[in-house]
Amino acid sequence: MKLRAAIFAVGVLSLAIYTGLGFRASQVDEPLYPSPSLSKIVRLSEYDSRLRGTRADTDVYEFGEPDGGATILVLGGTHCDEPASYIAAYLLLENIEMERGRMLIVPRTNRSAMSHKTIGEAHPPTFDIPLPNGVRPFRMGSRYTNPLDQWPDPEVFVHSPSGQELSGADSRNLNRSYPGAANGNFTGQIAFAITELVKQEHVDLVIDLHEASPEYPVINAIVAHERAMDCASMAVLDLQLEGLEFALEPSPANFRGLSHRELGDHTLTHATLMESANVSQGRLRGKTNADLVVSGLDSMYVRAAKINMTRVPYDEKGIPLKVRVGRHIAGFHKLISAFSQLNPDRAAAFTGIPTYDELQQHDLGIYLDPHDHP
Amino acid sequence: MLFWTYWLLAALLLALIARELWRASEWRMQLAAALVLLPLLLRVLLFK
Ligand SMILES: [Zn+2]
Q1: Is residue A51 in a domain?
Q2: What's the whole-model pTM score?
Q3: Where are the domains of chain B?
Q4: Residue A18 lies in a domain
Q5: Is the peptide bond before A125 cis (omega within 30 degrees of 0)?
Q6: Is residue A87 situated within a structural domain?
Q7: CB contact under 8 A, A16 and B2
Q8: Which of A28, A117, A118, A151 to mutate to test binding with chain B, by most B CBs within 10 Å of its CB?
């Protein structure tokens, strides 16, 4: 009896160590290879020292120099189960060459959320993007801050300073936590640091990259704060002229905690957010695996689209990662050119980033090949 | 603060269930205790 208990105990301990090592591995950042245009890397904790040494302290990549041109901030990985968000940010930071202005890229905005996965979603730990020779693995994370960093969740999450009430789990949702507070919870501190970054670096334009499920109402869209409306509407028109269907969504004034609302209200920036359609987040999806993340093809969604249950066109071609990343990259091009046309004295210019069509022709791997960075 | 209170609760529960594993005579009870131990252990060790 005691012997059996001892055997069980050893079994549990070995299992804990085995799975624990797996969980630890998902906390190791995959290497990124910034383009030669990189001027420096600072840590987010520079803007709020309480993040120093935590799982949320993350790299801010800076390209170009302060030369009078615009300062632009790209946020990838606010929600780390939205791969097009951070893969687009990785692609930008590995390829961009700044000609005028400054580009700040935070590829893992909620780095804590990249260190675990949401229970019950069956998301794969990693997925592979094919390269010209071989593959490059990328992690998949969670929508929420790791509970190891913020636990327990309250029954009701009360947003500060608005008093808006949301479900308890949203206390770990970075995009419900802006503008954040110096004495707030852990996720609020990340939001606070981003808000401080926007203020201290005088960021002119924020582009926050996201994905959502195909049945979500705000999708294939650019969401913009009032101040950014001119810029975003020009960008959406441009995108539509090129055949890319984008909707323009005004940031709702009474939905608090979102980056486009709070960064717009609490700083002088032009705050925008982009959404693409990701079936691996959807409630109607079938089998969930790494292939689904990359191919974006799910037979349940093909059926759902036939009975008008999706908010975006969806067929047997699926919505692959390269299309979703391509849409983010296309929006990035257009938002910056619109901002530059509207503010010629603060224009920004860059090269090295493919157009939507180039990306569809050449595939993601061409732009994410580490061998191009000796 | 609340974090470590919850951590202590998890550690306490872990100790109680480990005791149960040791004391139980029936193998089913022991197996059930062992299964419940796993997530508690992962949280107390801050793996997950
Ligand atoms: Zn999102």
Answers
A1: yes
A2: 0.96
A3: 2-44
A4: no
A5: no
A6: yes
A7: no
A8: A151
Q: How far is CA A186 from CA A48, A51, A250, B1, B46, in A?
A: 11, 8, 29, 12, 17
Partner-chain contact A12 B42, CB within 8 Å = no
Residue A293 is part of which domain span? 30-372
What are the CA-CA distances from residue A148 to residues A24, A54, A295, B32, B46 (Å)? 12, 11, 32, 25, 7
Q: Residue written as tokens 């000609």?
A: A99
Q: Would you state the torsion angle of the CA atoms of residues A61, A64, A65, A69, taken in this order, to the nearest 10 degrees?
A: -110
pLDDT in tens, chain A (374 residues): 789 999 999 999 999 999 999 899 889 999 999 999 999 999 999 999 999 999 999 999 999 999 999 999 999 999 999 999 999 999 999 999 999 999 999 999 999 999 999 999 999 999 999 999 999 999 999 999 999 999 999 999 999 999 999 999 999 999 999 999 989 999 999 999 999 999 999 999 999 999 999 998 888 999 999 999 999 999 999 999 999 999 999 999 999 999 999 999 999 999 999 999 999 999 999 999 999 999 999 999 999 999 999 999 999 999 999 999 999 999 999 999 999 999 999 999 999 999 999 999 999 999 999 987 64
Counting the structural domains of chain A, the total is 1
User: What is the CA(B34)–ligand 1 centre distance, in A?
Assistant: 38
Q: Is residue A345 part of a domain?
A: yes
> What spacing in Å lies between the alpha carbon of B17 and ligand 1's midpoint?
39
Task: Return the CATH number at A76.
Answer: 3.40.630.10
Side chain identity, residue A166:
L
Q: Do residue A152 and residue B6 have CB atoms under 8 angstroms apart? A: yes
> Which residues crowd ion ligand 1, with CB under 5 Å?
A 79, 82, 210
